[in-house]
Structures are given as C-alpha cells and as structure tokens.
Amino acid sequence: MDTKRTILVIEDEPHILLGLKDALEFEGFSVLSAGSGKAGLGVAQKERPDAVLLDLMLPDLNGYQVCEELRRTSPLVPIIMLTAKSQEADKIRGLEAGADDYVTKPFSIGELVARIRAIFRRTQRPSEAPTFRLGEATINLAAHSLQRDGKRAEQLSFYEVELLRFLHERQGQAVGRDELLDKIWGLEASPTNRTIDNFVVKLRKKIEKSPDKPVHILTVYGFGYKLVD
Ligand code: CA
Q1: The CATH number of the domain where 191 resides is what?
Q2: Digit-coded pLDDT (tens) for 90-114
Q3: Which of 139, 168, 170 shows the shortest CA–CA distance to 155?
Q4: Pair (113, 167) in one structural domain
C-alpha cells in the first residue's frame, strides 16, 4: 500500500542522506533528495512528495524556516523533522513551525519508518464530517484550517487536526490522555503527556476567547480532555 509513496529527504550530510535513501527505498518508498533548504523547497513545489523528512541543521536556511515555507506552499504534506537536538524547546519550536513529528538523531531506521507509516495510516482515514463549529470557530478537518468569526483562516498542523478530529468524534465525553497518545501518536512515537498538553495549549489559543479559562477544550483533571460546543 505504501509502495508508491514518495518521500523527500532534505539533508546536507551525504552519508546520512544516502543511508536514509537506501533504507527508505528498501522499505518500498520512492525517495527524492535535496542537500539544502532552498533546493528542498524547489523539489517540494515541483514534485509534490507525500511526506518530507527535514533536517534541522542545513547550510542555507534552517529547518524551522524551511518548515514554515513548506507549510505555506504545501499545507497538507506531513513533515517529520530530523534533529540532533533533544531539547524540549527545539521540539516545540519545530512543531510550532508546522512539523508533524520529529525524530532525534541518532535514530533507528525502524523507528523512523514506523512513524512514516503511522502518518500515512492516519492521513488515509476518511473524515465523515470535514467541518464543524466550536464556539466562534469553524474547523475544517479536510483543509487543516480553522477560522474564527471575523478573522482570517489559519492553518492547523497535522496533530492539531488529529486531536480535534478525535475529540470531536467523542464530543461531550472525557477522553483519556493514554488513549489519545495511543490512537493519535501511536506507540512507536513514544510521546509524553506533555506532547498532548502542548498541542492543547496551542489549540486553545486558536479557539477559545479566553485561553486561560477554556470553555470548549476542557481539562478533565488526572484523566484527559473533553470537547464541548
Ligand atoms: Ca545537517
């Protein structure tokens, strides 16, 4: 099922690029490569890959800049950031720049491939109700966008959409963090509870009138979250 998926790898270190290319092709993916940020953006625009693996440290633009630019030109493409940094702040910054996931070098090819497959599984899921209202916000799950009444539409990242989709399917019910981690991030991604909390903070800023006093994405203490209109 994954055999015709094309993955663009933007990485300036030739031996890492070659290793990734070999491994991903062995796994049945078609691989495009670029050795700089600008080259990567060009290839992405021209070839429309199904996913992008993006190194954080590049010779021209940094990975955050490339990520933001990719998000502008290709709002829907899944982006996995490859980072040598394991600082929480770098990960959060990457996710804020629009990355859907990240792996920290050195990573195993097995883990990376598992994450790529997980992202493709999730994007294949049909969405029955692509748009719904939440307070003053209209959320379009298919377009990955959110629009507050009277404001410009903004893009949502992949995990923001998945979190909203999952909570919306169970609107009015408390959903546990463990279940959200399991169903959305998948066991292979080994995220922490803070991962979810960070996305909830970002979503509240986009949806709630008073993000500090949320009325739509509620915390169920010691358990998880609940979506109410
Ligand atoms: Ca690099």
Answers
A1: 1.10.10.10
A2: 777 777 788 888 888 888 888 888 8
A3: 139
A4: no
Cα 105 to averaged position of ligand 1 atoms, centre (Å): 11
**Two tokens, residue 61:** 């633009």
165 in the same domain as 75:
no
Asked if 10 and 117 sit in the same domain, the reply is yes
Token code pair at residue 13:
């270190």
Calculate how far, in angstroms, residue 18's C-alpha sits from the geometric centre of ligand 1. Answer: 13
Residue-range definition of the domain harbouring residue 147: 131-227
Distance (angstroms) between ligand 1 centre and the Cα of 62 equals 9
Distance 222 CA to ligand 1 centre (A): 40
- What's the pLDDT tens digit per position in 155-173? 898 889 889 988 998 899 9
Last residue of a domain, one of 95, 123, 151: 123
Q: What's the pTM value of the predicted model, to 2 decimals? A: 0.57
Residue type, 177: R
